[in-house]
Structures are given as C-alpha cells and as structure tokens.
Specification:
HMA_dom_sf, HMA_dom, 5 helices, single chain, 17% strand, elongated, alpha+beta, Alpha-Beta Plaits, 44% helix
C-alpha cells in the first residue's frame, strides 16, 4: 500500500513540475501612450502561441509577459508587438504600421532613439 501511495505522490509531483517547468515571466520595454495602446499590445502578445499572460503598464511602458518557453520565446513576443506598430528594445515597428496608429497612440520615436544612443558625447 505504501508503494502505491508513494508512486501516486511521485507521479503528482512530476506532473506538477512538468506543467510549471516551461513557464517564464519577462519584462520588456514597449513604447505607447494610452489605453488603446494597452489593448493593442496585450491582444497582440496574447495571440502568440504559448503566451498565458500579458500586462502592459502605460505609465512605466513595461510589458510583463508570461509564456511557455517550450512553445515560444521572447523574440517572438517582441516581433508581435512591433507588428502592431509599437517599438520595443529589440524590434522597431515598420514606419508604415506606426503611421497607421491613431494620433493618440503615436509616441515620440525621437525620444526613444535618444535613450538608445549609449555613452557617446559625454565624459566619465
């Protein structure tokens, strides 16, 4: 009897480990402005196979995404965001897609470029 119970417990633990083993949570910078941006970004990310959660904060511009890393990767998440017109640190949206965003959703791309330049132009 003890071996049957021990076997069941072992199978349960292994099954639970398998379910949670592939889940990964990452935070990425996504440029946008408003609630419409939030809906668009989260919808695009949730459409990626393997993504279970997407939450974009319009104040911090940070997207928290939880995904199964056996089905997808963070690169595909960045690509999905860029495909709907929003730049990330890894991918820039195509100009023609960005240009189709509503005016309230058009973030300042020049400010974004300034933050990515690096350390040129100043002394340490």
């Amino acid at each position: 009897m003890k071996t049957k119970v021990l076997s069941l417990v072992t199978l349960f633990v292994m099954g639970a480990f398998t379910v949670f083993a592939g889940n990964k949570t990452e935070k990425i910078k996504v440029y946008g402005n408003c609630g419409m941006c939030e809906n668009r970004i989260e919808k695009a990310v949730k459409a990626v196979d393997g993504v279970s959660k997407a939450d974009w904060d319009k104040e911090t511009k940070m997207l928290e995404v939880t995904f199964d890393d056996t089905k997808t990767n963070i690169h595909k998440v960045h690509m999905a965001v860029a495909a709907v017109g929003h730049d990330t640190d890894m991918h820039k949206a195509k100009d023609e897609v960005y240009d189709k965003l509503p005016s309230c959703c058009k973030y300042d791309r020049t400010a974004e470029a300034k933050t990515e330049e690096g350390h040129e132009g100043h002394m340490h």
